[in-house]
Write a structure and sequence with these properties.
heterodimer; A: mainly alpha; B: mainly alpha; 2 helices; 0% strand; DPM2 (chain B); endoplasmic reticulum (chain B); membrane (chain B); enzyme regulator activity (chain B); transmembrane (chain B)
């Protein structure tokens, strides 16, 4: 089974479980506070997934190792290459 | 470690995501179990907004993505038309 099929199966199973529980189709009598938590659950999972993604991106940006020497070396190499190509006649 | 603005922006994103996550968790998960007379309910909107606001934000995001794609496509079309 492909990854897409797996994901769709998982979503379908979780979605139908949630729908069955919120519409009361299973005939369970959940306490009112549990029902109150249950019905926004898909929105909650989406928002927490978004927050996790945002936080991970921010954390990786903050802890990315800069290489000052390599950056300077690269910039000087770029200047060198531009001068060389301009001398050979390439117009930027 | 990253330096300067990178660190500030990165940690800012982490802080924003944590704030949103804790507020939203308290709103959706914790509030139904707290007695409705408690003063903390004053700090949260009615529960219907817990789904309406992320939904509206998601639609806005889709709108901006669509507008950006349209803009880029129109610009590239104009560039190819100019070089023809």
């Amino acid at each position: 089974m492909t990854k897409l099929a797996q994901w769709l199966w998982g979503l379908a199973i979780l979605g139908s479980t949630w729908a069955a529980l919120t519409t009361g189709a299973l005939g369970l009598e959940l306490p009112l506070s549990c029902q109150e938590v249950l019905w926004p659950l898909p929105a909650y999972l989406l928002v927490s997934a978004g927050c996790y993604a945002l936080g991970t991106v921010g954390y990786r940006v903050a802890t990315f190792h800069d290489c000052e020497d390599a950056a300077r070396e690269l910039q000087s190499q770029i200047q060198e290459a531009r001068a060389d190509l301009a001398r050979r006649g390439l117009r930027f | 470690m990253a330096t300067g603005t990178d660190q500030v922006v990165g940690l800012g994103l982490v802080a924003v995501s944590l704030i949103i996550f804790t507020y939203y968790t308290a709103w959706v998960i914790l509030l139904p179990f707290i007695d409705s007379q408690h003063v903390i309910h004053k700090y949260f909107l009615p529960r219907a907004y817990a789904v309406a606001i992320p939904l509206a934000a998601g639609l806005l995001l889709l709108l901006f993505v669509g507008l950006f794609i349209t803009y880029v496509m129109l610009k590239s079309e104009r560039v190819t038309k100019k070089t023809q």
